[in-house]
Automatic annotation (TrEMBL), chain A:
Domain Cysteine-rich stretches: 21-100, 144-228
Protein name, as recorded: (Fe-S)-binding protein
Organism the protein comes from: Thalassotalea fonticola
Any Pfam family: CCG
TrEMBL record, chain B:
InterPro entries the record matches: 4Fe4S_Fe-S-bd, 4Fe4S_Fe_S_CS, FTHF_cligase-like_sf, Helical_ferredxn, LUD_dom, LutB/LldF, LutB_C, NagB/RpiA_transferase-like
Presence of keyword Transmembrane: no
Name assigned to this protein: LutB/LldF family L-lactate oxidation iron-sulfur protein
Species classification: Bacteria, Pseudomonadati, Pseudomonadota, Gammaproteobacteria, Alteromonadales
Pfam families (alphabetical): Fer4_8 (PF13183), LUD_dom (PF02589), LutB_C (PF11870)
Species this chain originates from: Thalassotalea fonticola
């Protein structure tokens, strides 16, 4: 048995009527449809979704680069956007990790920060532990792989909840790929500062995903997916990653409404 | 011998750590090296997993050992004094070395006093840290590494690429070639047992004739004045029993309070390092040879080295660096270490632990590339047996590296040396843009509209990936539009219902 990191274990609230959505800066500028899909999916579960227009970025890029004052200013601006005492659902694991596990350190002098961090839920975590969701798979049989971001995996336990969701899809077979728990090489500014090492890592990650012989891979983190999909496209591979929110929406909708989009 | 003040900027390790990027390019391009590391790391990760079948037991033990190390570090100055007192009471002499030059001077002096000419050395990363072999060689003292991996590395005129398995970067064919070039009468073979047998034959002779034995220390027990040494090959025992003079050298952080602290730490050490439930040898050195004893050295000395450790100790967060028991598990599980190998780091301690301890030894001027060379994947922190929060400490060192000159909150050597004006300005701009949603949303509006003008090549990113493509409209806009449509629809529905109702 591998080491189980238990820091993500927490008490979960009952299903709320309303939630906030934190879309993340990458989804905002590069992959907005996954944000819309997440909202649709949550609404189908009977949850009203509020998206504060003042949100920007969680501050992780500056924080990870050592510019903590700069990160702090941005983080505080985010906290102010979510005043109601309702869950904040995040569609990216590492941003979730930042807001739940690093804000307490970064903003330790701010009043109410613990309560704010307690309201942070990664999307798949929220579906499994708060909504206790039951999925009805309406898609064709297919084989997929799951990629979980490292921060999400080790800070938030998303590898467990992501897997639990895919496992609920009757017609989907989840294939384990080699070195599944190993980093894809993104790491934010790491991929720029140490591009050679990052490049070697993503080459290996794509090789293992391609060798897994799946039709797509699923992830709940756009940072990793931007990295892996970019490498796959560069290599002219047909395999691509899809955000779990879009994937779940697609699998649980009947075909007609999907076409009507 | 006059003890010159050691300047870390002049050490060979400082120079090679500074060349990190060049080293990385060199070693990433070496396919044989990468295969050697991948194979070895896979093997070690698998062994570790099998040694910890019970996840709950592992977690309990990690917590226990973390607390042991933290307790001992909290009392470090007191425990070091107690250790000195009890070692002296046992007849072991204690020497304090602030710098690596101090340590080398002390050791050279001890050897010269005994007219020593030949030294056999059990594996000691601390003596690697002080570059003791070179130092002694300059004084015509032959120092032979007796750990098989260290012996191979010494023959190859290299330094260790791993703290537990120094020659793990070499495969058996490379070792066979190395032996063929260096050992007279060696019959070329790639049979691992035969290779080790050959190495042992050479070493045996040296053990019998050496004047001095030098070793490291895994745990120094303050309560009893005992030096504990973990090893697998018996060479450590040879070095500590055959020569008349035994000199042990260790970093000050290796002291533990009680003998009872050792068993849990030892159990975690061997399992984390090589997946062994117990090592072949566990030596406890409590005194020099007694009158009624037939073997053992006439004199035993311990050199306690600081070399930047007290700088780490002074800060409560950075102090956690010193919890390290040198098992190497963080390296074995690190995707960066696996790709580039240990030599690329240019430091004595490579891998994740090297990235957080080397800045204390060499200063951040020489090492500010190291903390950034991590994707912060967290694998190191996940496997660390004593729960050192390595990713968190990497973040802390990144912060120390780029801190503004007027910030005087810590006293790290070389703090602020990684700060580049242009980078600082970029982050300030970034912060401003993301602090004010109006600026952010306006910028994003323009960026998405002008997306066709975005460059297809974005530096190093596009050397293995295509450039990210901005969406035609941001999520902010899409949601705004969606909400508008929805409220219009709702209005219509209400209107229709009202009309129908009437």
């Amino acid at each position: 048995m591998s080491t189980l990191n238990t820091q993500h274990l927490r008490n979960y609230p009952a299903k709320p009527a309303q939630v906030y959505l934190y879309g993340t800066c990458l989804a905002d500028s590069l992959f907005p449809d996954s944000g819309i899909d997440a909202i649709e999916f949550l609404e189908q579960q009977g949850v009203e979704v509020i998206y504060p227009q003042g949100q920007t970025c969680c501050g992780q890029p500056a924080y990870n680069s050592g510019y903590q004052d700069e990160a702090k200013a941005v983080a505080l601006a985010q906290v102010a956007q979510f005043p109601k005492n309702i869950p904040i659902v995040i569609i990216s694991g590492s941003c979730g990790g930042m807001m739940r596990h690093h804000y307490p350190d970064l903003l330790k002098d701010e009043a109410g920060i613990t309560e704010f961090c307690d309201r942070i839920f990664e999307f798949t975590e929220f579906l499994v532990h708060v909504l206790k969701i039951k999925l009805d798979d309406k898609g064709e049989p297919e084989k997929v792989a799951l990629h979980t971001s490292c921060a999400a995996r080790r800070e938030m336990g998303v590898h467990i909840t992501g897997r639990a969701l895919i496992d609920q899809l009757d017609n989907v077979e989840l294939i384990n790929h080699n070195y599944e728990s190993e980093c894809c090489g993104f790491g934010g500014t790491f991929s720029v500062k140490h591009g050679d090492i990052s490049g070697a890592m993503v080459k290996d990650k794509t090789k293992n995903l391609v060798n897994a012989d799946v039709v797509r891979f699923i992830s709940a983190d756009w940072g990793c997916m931007m990295n892996i999909n970019g490498a796959l496209e560069y290599q002219k591979q047909s395999l691509r990653g899809e955000h779990i929110a879009s994937y779940l929406l697609k699998r649980t909708q009947n075909h007609a409404s999907e076409q009507g989009e | 011998m006059a003890a010159e003040q050691f300047d870390p900027n002049e050490s060979k390790y400082a120079a090679s750590a500074r060349a990190f990027r060049d080293n990385v390019s060199r070693d990433l391009g070496n396919d044989e090296l990468r295969d050697n590391f991948r194979g070895a790391m896979d093997y070690l990760m698998d062994k570790r997993t099998k040694a910890f079948v019970d996840g709950d037991e592992l977690e309990t033990l990690r917590e226990q050992c973390k607390l042991i190390k933290q307790r001992c570090l909290l009392k470090l100055p007191h425990l070091l004094e107690q250790l000195e007192e009890n070692l002296q009471a046992n007849g072991i002499q204690v020497h304090w070395a602030e710098t690596i030059t101090d340590a080398n001077d002390i050791i050279a002096q001890l050897i010269t006093e005994k007219n020593g000419k030949t030294v056999v050395k059990g594996k000691s990363m601390v003596s690697e840290e002080t570059a003791l072999n070179d130092y002694l060689e300059e004084r015509d003292i032959e120092c032979l590494e007796s750990d098989m991996g260290e012996y191979i590395v010494q023959l190859a005129n290299e330094h260790p690429s791993h703290i537990i398995m120094p020659a793990i970067h070499q495969n058996k064919k490379q070792v066979a070639d190395l032996f063929a070039d260096n050992i007279e009468g060696f019959k070329h073979t790639t049979d691992v047992d035969a290779l080790i047998g050959e190495g042992r034959r050479v070493l045996r002779e040296k053990f019998c004739n050496a004047d001095v034995g030098i070793t490291g220390v895994n745990f120094a027990v303050a309560e009893t004045g005992t030096l504990c040494l973990v090893e697998n090959e018996g060479n450590g025992r040879m070095c500590t029993t055959v020569p008349d003079l035994h000199i042990a050298i260790t970093g000050i952080e290796k002291v533990v309070e009680f003998l009872d602290d050792v068993p849990p730490l030892l159990s975690l050490l061997t399992r984390s390092a090589t997946g062994q439930l117990i090592s072949t040898y566990f030596n406890m050195i409590s005194h020099p040879r007694q009158n009624d004893e037939k073997d053992g050295p006439q004199e035993v000395h311990l050199v306690l080295l600081d070399n930047g450790r007290s700088q780490a100790f002074a800060d409560e967060e950075l102090r956690q660096t010193l919890q390290c028991i040198r098992c190497g598990a963080c390296m074995n599980h690190c995707p960066v270490y696996t790709r580039i190998g240990g030599h690329a780091y240019g430091t004595v301690y490579p891998g994740p632990i090297g990235k957080i301890i080397s800045p204390h030894m060499l200063g951040l001027e020489a090492t500010n590339n190291l903390p950034t060379a991590s994707s912060l994947c967290g694998a190191c922190g996940e496997v660390c047996p004593v729960k050192i929060p390595i990713p968190k400490l990497l973040l802390r060192l990144r912060k120390e590296s780029v801190k503004p000159a007027n910030d005087e909150t810590t006293v790290m050597k070389g703090e602020g040396s990684g700060r580049k004006k242009i980078e600082a300005v970029i982050w300030q701009g970034w912060s401003l843009m993301h602090k004010y949603a109006l600026i952010y949303n306006t910028s994003m509006w323009f960026a998405t509209r002008l997306r066709k003008l975005m460059p297809k090549k974005v530096g190093v990113w596009t050397s293995v990936r295509t450039a990210p493509k901005l969406a035609p409209k941001t999520l902010h806009e899409k949601i705004k539009a969606r909400n508008k449509t929805r409220s219009a629809q709702q209005q219509n529905t209400i209107a229709t219902q009202n009309i129908g109702g009437k």
